[in-house]
Every structure is written in C-alpha cells, then in structure tokens.
C-alpha cells in the first residue's frame, strides 16, 4: 500500500474548491441557465493562473464552480453538497481507466472481504467495457455464476430488468451483492448468440478457496489457483507438500492452472512465482512516483526441485495471473499452454482517505522480467490449445501377437498384453472429455518428465558362445 505526500497542487486544489463552494453558495439566476459565476477579484488572486506551469487551470476551476452552483440551485430535486462533491470525486476516478475507483464505506469493506476470500454475491469478476456495459472477466470457481454457465466475455446489459449502461463499476457490483438466498436476474449478451438471454441466480456466501490440489496420475500433480489472496503463496507450498506425501516422494511434474483467475494481491503472485524459481527478477513496476517503482526478485529454493512445470491460461487469466505466467515463461521455467490471457498490465493501489473510505488508483504498469508489458495484449501461450469438446472414437478390436496360438513367450518375464487387457485408463478418458486443455497439458508434462528422467535401456544379454 502506497502513501503519497500531499503536494502543493493538492493543497491549492483544496483552497480552490473551498472558494468555489463559497461561490456556489451565493445567489444564482435560476431563470438564466447560462449565467456564469464569476469570483470576486480577491478570490481570483488566490486562485492559480492558467499560464503558471504545474498549476491547476483557473478556467476549469471556474467552470467546476459554475456547474456545482447550477446543479445545487436548479436541479429538479435538492441534493446536498456532500453528495455532489462525492459524485465529483467518483467522476474524476471513473474517467481515468476501468480499474480506478472511489471506494465508499460499503465498497471499501467489500474490497477487504474480497482479499480475504469471503463475501456475499453471485461470484463474478467484472469490469466495464468501452460501451459502458458490464463485462464478465471470469466466473469464480464453485459459485452460483459458474454453476449457471456464465462465461468470460459475457456482457451483462441488465440487472433485474434495469439497464447497466453507464452505471459505475462499484454500483454494478453492489447491485449483484446481496444476502444469501436472494435472487437476481441478469440479461446477458454472448458472442455467437443471436439475442440476449436471461439468467436468474440465487446469491450465496462466496467463499473463494484460493488453492486446490490433487494428483492427476501417480507422480504428476495439479495445482489450481482461483484467486491471489494474502496467504496464497503459503497455501500453495503446503498443497505441494501434501501431494509429495501422497506420492511418497518428489513430484515428477506439476500443472499450474491459472485459467479464469482474475488476479488479486501483487505480493502473492510474486510468492507463487518465487516458489518455482531459484533466482532472478519476477516482476517490476514503473509509475510516476518513486513508491510506484518496485522490483521483486526470487529467493533461492525451488519447491519442485526443478521438476517440469506447465502453466494453463486463458482469456480469464488477468493481472497477478499474468505476472506468474510471464515470469515463469521468461525464465523458461515453465511451458505456458492455453489461449491468450486478459491483458491487464496495471497495478492498483488502495489509498485510504479516511477510516471508512479510500480510492483505488492505477499507480503503475508492471513488466515481466524481460521487459514485456502485457497491457491490452496479454500473455501469449507457448502452445495454443483451444477449449474443445473431444469425443473418443471407439476402436475396432484387433488381434495382437499375444492372442495368437503358440505365440512365443516374453523373455523379459513380463506379463502378456492381449487385446482384452489393452485399454485406456478411465481417468485419462474422463480428463480428455471433461477438460481437453488439462489433458493436453498433462500429456506435455509427462513427455518432458519421461524425456528428462528416462533411464538408458538395459544392455541386451550376451549371445551364447558358439
């Protein structure tokens, strides 16, 4: 979390806004909508001039005071000054980029819940697109949204029948939040669908389990990181330890699944990448102020001991996910498989302005160890594997050597493998049909591991002396 010193410009802005508010409190001509509000000469002397470098523009401050006054006196309903000023702050931040925002009391509390992994809602990570609609970045695992089949890239155009066009991101998120058991109807547009469709979701307590792990096959592990929370790095290392214990030895390889991971805490992404690197730069950030320029490097110790690593990404992998994938790709520590990632290459800093309010401000861009910015481009996988439905074609039973009468026995003492004994393991069949990207990643992982760890074949026995 960064803390910016109050600059001279900020102090002068406070003076100017105070003076502007004083002007707005004066009498106004309600019948003449274009009546300008001119400060008195003493006020004008206190305000900065347009021609002074680095100063706030006087003309725009006068316009602000005029608009404030017109709204305050002529709007159809009375609006208190506090609400108007808070709306002005929101407008300043919303006009910067899709990720900067003003956090009021409820939004600030929601953000804290989000980084610890528990909140009430439907389980969607969303942003606002260029048309002003709410776009799904990714559904969160094991939530009402993922169960309903909502996909990355879906555009939400209505919530409970109300258009969300032009609605601020925080307001849209607040509409989707709610008590467990309550319902919300979403109207969604999806690429390839000719018309919008409605989905009704029942809100639940969203408990985001950051790390899940299991063995895909003996010696080959699977790590799924759904979101980068405060303890994700430590949780992942503990999960690796459990898989090693189950394997009764070191893992031969791991698939790290970052698909549909919207990001999260920057330091946690550094911790995850560090767990697989012995040394070197993980990520660096560049911003306008000194505190926004940082470098994060790996410490000694690879949790897998150099075992092969495959990283899975897709269009829902954003921000911290891209930091991990980019670092491991640049260091050639992992092969990245899947489809292009989301492309969010900026860092947001939460700056408290009171105990209950804060601003979330984009303060830096981040770069991979080789200096790549993935902003609006994304991480491009080393091997592209699109999500697809795979159907196994049943093969015709064929006679093998072991099925033939009077066939020679195997001199190595191995059991025979006839047509009845030959079949693909059920686990592989299920994985191939349920998740073709993970299936391909596992095959790639096994290929690397077998190549690295294969032992030379035993020398053939000497032929008998003649």
Q: Approximately how much beta-strand content do the residues carry?
A: 15-25%
CATH topology category name of the domain at 211-348 and 362-384: 2-enoyl-CoA Hydratase, Chain A, domain 1
Give the name of the CATH superfamily of the domain at 211-348 and 362-384. Answer: 2-enoyl-CoA Hydratase, Chain A, domain 1
The percent of residues in helical segments reads 25-40%
| Average pLDDT over all residues | 83
List low-pLDDT spans.
Answer: 1-48, 454-459
The CATH architecture of the domain at 211-348 and 362-384 is Alpha-Beta Complex
List the total number of helices.
Answer: 12
Q: Any idea what the radius of gyration is?
A: 29 Å
Q: How many strand elements? A: 19
- Could you say which overall geometry the principal axes of the C-alpha atoms support? elongated
* Cα-to-Cα separation, first versus last residue: 82 Å
> Helix/strand-derived class?
alpha+beta
> Largest beta sheet, briefly?
6 strands, antiparallel
CATH class of the domain at 211-348 and 362-384 equals Alpha Beta
């Amino acid at each position: 979390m960064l803390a910016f010193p109050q600059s001279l410009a900020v102090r002068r802005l406070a003076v100017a806004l105070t003076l502007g508010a004083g002007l707005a409190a004066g009498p106004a001509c309600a019948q003449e909508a274009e009546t300008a509000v001119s400060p008195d000469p003493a006020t004008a002397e206190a305000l900065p001039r347009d021609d002074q470098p680095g100063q706030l523009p006087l003309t725009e401050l006068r316009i602000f005071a005029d608009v404030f006054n017109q709204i305050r006196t002529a709007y159809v309903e009375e609006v208190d000054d506090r609400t108007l000023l808070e709306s002005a702050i929101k407008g300043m931040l919303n006009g910067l980029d899709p990720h900067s925002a003003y956090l009021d009391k409820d939004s600030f509390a929601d953000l804290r819940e989000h980084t610890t992994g528990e909140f009430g809602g439907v389980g969607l990570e969303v942003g606002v697109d260029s048309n002003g609609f709410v776009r799904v970045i990714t559904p969160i695992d094991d939530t009402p949204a993922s169960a309903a089949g909502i996909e990355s890239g879906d555009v939400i155009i209505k919530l409970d029948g109300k258009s969300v066009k032009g609605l601020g991101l925080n307001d849209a998120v607040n509409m989707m939040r709610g008590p467990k058991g309550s319902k919300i109807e979403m109207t969604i547009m999806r690429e390839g669908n000719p018309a919008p469709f409605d989905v009704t979701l029942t809100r639940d307590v969203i408990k985001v389990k950051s790390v899940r792990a299991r063995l895909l096959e003996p010696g080959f592990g699977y790590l799924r990181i759904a979101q980068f929370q405060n303890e994700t790095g430590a949780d992942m290392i503990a999960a690796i330890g459990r898989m090693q214990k189950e394997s009764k030895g070191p893992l031969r390889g791991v698939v790290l699944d970052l698909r549909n991971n919207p990001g999260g805490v920057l330091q946690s992404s550094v911790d995850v990448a560090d767990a697989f690197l012995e040394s070197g730069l993980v990520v660096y950030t560049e911003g306008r102020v000194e505190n926004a320029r940082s470098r994060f490097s790996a410490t000694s110790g690879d949790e897998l001991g150099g075992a092969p690593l495959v990283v899975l990404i897709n269009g829902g992998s954003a921000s911290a996910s891209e930091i991990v994938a980019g670092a491991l790709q640049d260091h050639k520590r992992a092969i990245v498989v899947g489809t292009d990632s989301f492309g969010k290459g900026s860092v947001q800093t939460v700056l408290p302005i009171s105990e209950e309010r804060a601003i979330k401000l984009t303060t830096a861009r981040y770069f991979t160890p080789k200096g790549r910015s993935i902003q609006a481009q994304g991480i491009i996988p080393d091997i592209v594997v699109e999500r697809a439905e795979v159907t196994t074609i049943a093969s015709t039973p064929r006679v093998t050597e072991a099925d033939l009468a009077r066939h020679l026995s195997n001199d190595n003492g191995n059991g025979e493998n006839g047509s009845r004994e030959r079949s693909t393991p059920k686990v592989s069949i299920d994985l191939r049909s349920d998740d073709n990207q993970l299936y391909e990643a596992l095959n790639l992982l096994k290929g690397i591991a077998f190549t690295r760890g294969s032992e030379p074949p035993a020398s053939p026995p000497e032929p008998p002396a003649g």
